[in-house]
Amino acid sequence: MEIFILAFFALGYLVLAGADIGVGMTLPYLGRSADERREVIAAIAPFFLGNEVWLVATAGVLAGLFPELEGELLSGNYSVVVGLLVAWVVRDMGLWLRGRVPGRRWAGFWDGATVAGSWGLALSWGLLLSHVLLGIHGPIALLPALVVAALFATHGLTFAALRLRGALRERAAVLSGEAGEGRTYALTAAALVAVGMLAGLRLPLHPGTAGSLLVPVILGLIPLLVAVQGWVWWTFRHRVTGPSYL
């Protein structure tokens, strides 16, 4: 049961947060002006904080149910984890601060931070997954990391195509073709799940001794988390019609 809980949160994070990471990566392509970029960011504004909860939950499950695995992942990939956290902070700073002071230069600077942080997140996850899947370290690990980053970017484009309108939607749907953005989103989500599952199969998943206490609590919280996530998606199911609070 502990393994299924870990997989639930980790794969959920890759699919949900992978979309807003990908949108941030492709922001310069999608938004050609400050106003367009603001509208593109509005596509992920209702979701990105809730999506990050899945990563926090994954870290909590690792610490509580798989303490040995947590130690191995952190000690063996210390620089990658630090880079991931820095990129996460930079990306969120960009999203939160871009609209706090009027002026295109201010917004442009923080849009750049959003793009850089999103690429940093994607590459960090790519490096971590390549370490786990292929056992590759060093500069050569950038090659599979770039493949994973490209998957994040494609996933973000398909999500943007589901959320945007007009010219912005046409740009986002450039990879969808006749299949439609819904089917393409499902394909990219399935690809992220497949990568995550393959990585999971390579990990030494040996639960700790706290499972008997924590598992019932986590199982009780999962329906609440899913319900809240579903409510957010239902509330903001319509396409973006203008700028958001960000």
Describe the 3D structure.
With 246 residues, the chain is mainly alpha-helical. The protein is 78% helix and 0% strand. It is built from eleven helices and no strands. The protein has helices at 2-25, 27-30, 34-44, 48-65, 67-76, 78-97, 104-134, 142-163, 166-172, 181-201, 211-235. The longest helix has 31 residues, at 104-134. The protein is globular and about 55 Å long.
Task: Give a quick set of tags describing it.
78% helix; 246 residues; mainly alpha
Helix fraction, binned, reads over 70%
Work out the radius of gyration. 18 Å
Tell me the major beta sheet: none
Instruction: Flag low-confidence runs.
Output: none
| Beta-strand percent range | under 5%
First-to-last CA distance = 39 Å
> What order do the helices and strands follow?
HHHHHHHHHHH
Mean pLDDT: 90
The total of beta strands comes to 0
Silhouette: globular
Q: Structural class, please?
A: mainly alpha
**How many H/I helices?**
11
Outline of the structure:
The chain is an all-alpha fold and 246 residues long. The protein is 78% helix and 0% strand. The chain is globular, with a radius of gyration of 18 Å.
Q: What's the structural blueprint in terms of helices and strands?
A:
Blueprint (H helix, E strand, L loop, with lengths): L1 H24 L1 H4 L3 H11 L3 H18 L1 H10 L1 H20 L6 H31 L7 H22 L2 H7 L8 H21 L9 H25 L11
